[in-house]
Amino acid sequence: MRGLTGKKALITGAGNGIGRAIALRLAEEGADIAIADLDEAGMAATQAAVRSHGRACEVERADVGDPAAVKRAAKALEDRLGPTDILVNNAGIVRLGAVLETKLEDFQAVMRANVEGVLHFSQAIVPGMVARKRGSVVNLSSWLGKAGRPFFGMYGASKAAVIMLTQSLSLEIAASGVRVNCVCPGLIDGTPMRVSAEAQSKALGMPAAKDRVSTIPLKRTGSPEDVAKVVAFLASDESAYMTGQSLNITGGMWQH
Ligand SMILES: NC(=O)c1ccc[n+]([C@@H]2O[C@H](COP(=O)([O-])OP(=O)(O)OC[C@H]3O[C@@H](n4cnc5c(N)ncnc54)[C@H](O)[C@@H]3O)[C@@H](O)[C@H]2O)c1
User: Fold this and answer.
1) Could you tell me the distance, in angstroms and rounded to a whole number, from the CA of residue 4 to the centre of ligand 1?
2) Domain carrying residue 20
3) Residue 250 included in any domain
4) Is the pTM higher than 0.85?
5) Whole-angstrom distance, CA of residue 9 vs CA of residue 159
6) Is 18 among the domain residues?
7) Which atom of ligand 1 sits closest to the CA of residue 39?
8) Which end of the chain is least crowded, N or C, by CB within 10 Å?
9) Whose CA is nearest to atom 2 of ligand 1?
10) What is the per-residue pLDDT across 22-51, written as a single tens digit (0 to 9) for each?
11) How many domains does the chain fold into?
12) Which residue, judged by its Cα, is nearest atom 28 of ligand 1?
């Protein structure tokens, strides 16, 4: 499949983990890549990997929660790479804790990165897509945006908000032909966020991911590449009749 030849894809948080896998997959499909992330070393590593696939890759350090920084980075990246055809809002953080003990600063940090970041990058990039009458937006939600779990209150609330932003925006701009979908991954291993979630879970007395594998119908955790394949599908014309959807990538762990 080389369905993205000539396309320009802007991916937030592609300095690590799932975002890096998405950047590499879209590059393999023929897209040039733009990245906005806080992690400069991570971005440099992804950039080198994308370029080794023969695709262009531009990077800008930006905090997705800072609207002025997002505006500046979006303009700088589009000036260098050209107008964006694919926007992947992937950057995010996880903080766990009991709802009744949640500190306001933690709640606001999670909402700022996970929800406001989606808003800012959508506002910076999507109007151009609508004017050109083409484009695909893919947002990273989580199965925890659909299913309540103890200690995942603030993270789950942020990911539920991503689903609702996806649905509303998709309807607001559907007549332009620009599509907006999101993915809801389950337990995805091999990323810094997984390491952080595991440490926080342990401190709260929750089971480790490896001890939960038996509860996953497909009997394994997911990989960043499992997510990247679905994002590539949603980014491409293969999904031309889909908008406003939230696809689970959970090994069957969640089905709604
Ligand atoms: N790993 C999982 O199990 C899992 C499951 C479901 C959903 N997700 C979602 O997938 C996305 C990627 O997850 P991951 O596991 O690759 O995470 P990760 O921590 O490995 O990578 C996240 C990237 O986002 C960047 N980032 C964080 N805050 C930022 C900010 N304010 N501005 C700019 N960049 C910022 C980080 O520097 C990092 O490069 C996240 O939205 C996450 O919530 C992950």
Assistant:
1) 24
2) 8-188+225-243
3) no
4) yes
5) 22
6) yes
7) 37
8) C
9) 188
10) 999 999 999 999 999 999 999 999 999 999
11) 1
12) 92
